[in-house]
Design brief:
By secondary structure, the protein is an all-alpha fold. It has one domain (41-426). The protein has helices at residues 2-14, 19-34, 43-51, 58-71, 74-86, 93-108, 111-122, 125-128, 133-149, 154-163, 167-195, 208-214, 219-233, 239-256, 262-295, 298-309, 313-327, 333-350, 355-369, 377-384, 391-414, 417-420. α4 runs parallel beside α14 and α16 (298-309) packs across α18 (333-350).
Length: 427
């Protein structure tokens, strides 16, 4: 049963069938072959109950929040303010890329939105300041990936729903690893530019007067972050309700800056609907497949397989890391998360591994998948923001940051408290 399921999944992906359709198709086939009862009769109810899950309502709200920030120009002003404070480091504006990504991730929760926004804003500055193009593009792609790890994170919400793990705990667990990874990215840039000084480009004109004058442009992201995250841990709002508060705050801030209009709202709404439809369709398909896998006993088979193998918890973790690194070369990160969680997490739970900690590790591995060719989504998002050049430039520039992510994954395995320290305060 396991071999047939894996071969069917790989075959469907190889045919180029859209992920959502492929997962539903696989669910139908497995139900038909292995189930003694007609599981497909339950698909309608499952699709409705999944799409009406209250926690998932946060997804379109976080996407809308990011779109408003982008289309109102608030994100552009934020980038140039950050650039004034970080561009004195070896690597100049590449640190601004990472700093912007860290702050944007703490507001929108979407790596794709972060990479697209950052690529649009900072891409034209590569030639103006004579940066090494590949390394600069690598910071955009890698920085965008931080949107998965630093809360509020859309994939974390989906992981929490699929595994029935506390989303507030997942958010807390992602803070320290997310900030640490951003620092490691900056260290990667510093080491690279000390090794090849010309990669760091020309100095960006700055001064204390300019820095102080631009400080107000950093206030909007701080306020939005405090509203979104603060409301959750103060007990005033659920993650979904706090996302709605974030959207309201973004609109108010855009109106105060006289950068909000009906056109901005319509464009942001249209982009939100398109992205949300894609994500929710994949989530519904994953729940249908999860229902079938559980009903035919495949999830238990995988759990028993790991139990009989005699693997230790550490060995299971390293096996999972290798599995996701390979799978990440051929699957989009969100699809990979949704398709594999029903199979992997039961074995993780049986091995006594904390699902909150494993969720953070999985986010790091999904980040890595965003940068690994041939399917690395952020690579093509960044390439799409360029007017010329080959995607190989983005791929080569992302290699140092992919290695940094792997180092972060092994650091998390060696020191689990990096992720578990803050969630411990909620127990």
């Amino acid at each position: 049963m396991l071999k047939v399921s894996v071969l069917l999944l790989l075959g469907i992906l190889a045919l180029g069938i859209p992920v959502a359709a492929g997962l539903v198709f696989l669910a139908f086939i497995l139900a038909k072959i292995y189930s003694p009862m007609p599981l497909t009769f339950a698909f309608g109810e499952l699709a409705w109950s999944t799409s009406s899950e209250f926690t998932l309502f946060a997804i379109p709200l976080y996407i809308l929040l990011g779109e408003i920030l982008l289309r109102s120009g608030l994100s552009n002003r934020m980038y140039h303010a950050i650039a004034q404070w970080l561009s004195h480091l070896p690597g100049g504006l590449m640190h601004a890329n990472i700093g912007f990504s860290t702050i944007f991730a703490a507001m929108s929760g979407s790596s794709v939105a972060c990479a697209a926004t950052l690529g649009t804003i900072s891409g034209p500055l590569i030639k103006r300041y004579h940066y090494n193009e590949r390394l600069f593009l690598g910071t955009i792609a890698a920085g965008g990936a931080l949107g998965i790890l630093i809360p509020p994170s859309i994939p974390m919400i989906i992981y929490g729903v699929l595994t029935e793990t506390s989303i507030p705990k997942l958010y807390l667990a992602g803070f320290v690893p997310g900030i640490l990874l951003a620092v490691m990215f900056s260290l990667t840039v510093i080491v690279s530019c000390l090794f090849r000084r010309r990669w760091g480009g020309d100095p960006v004109p700055t001064g204390w007067k300019t820095r102080i004058e631009l400080l107000p442009d950093l206030v909007p992201p701080l306020l939005i972050f405090l509203v979104v995250i603060g409301a959750i841990y103060a007990g005033w709002a659920t993650p979904t309700e706090s996302a709605a508060l974030g959207v309201v705050m973004a609109i108010i801030l855009a109106m105060l800056r006289r950068q909000f209009s009906l056109s901005v709202l319509l464009q942001a709404g249209e982009a939100t609907v398109v992205t949300t439809a894609m994500i929710v369709l994949v989530v519904i398909a994953a729940f249908l497949l999860n229902f079938v896998l559980t009903s035919i006993g495949l999830s238990q088979i995988v759990t028993d397989l790991f139990a009989r193998s005699g693997m230790s918890a550490t060995m299971l973790i390293f096996t999972a890391i290798g599995f996701y690194l390979v799978l990440g070369m051929f699957m989009e990160s969100l699809s990979m998360l949704i398709a594999t969680v029903p199979l992997i997490v039961p074995a993780v739970v049986a091995a006594g591994i904390d699902t909150v900690w494993f969720g953070v590790l999985m986010m790091i591995l999904l980040e890595t998948a965003l940068l690994t060719p041939p399917i690395g989504f952020n690579l093509f998002v960044v390439q799409g923001t360029r007017s010329s050049g080959n995607v190989l430039d983005v791929i080569y520039g992302s290699i140092p940051f992919t290695l940094t992510m792997l180092a972060m994954a092994f650091l998390l395995v060696a020191f689990p408290q990096i992720a578990l320290w803050l969630p411990g305060y909620l127990d």
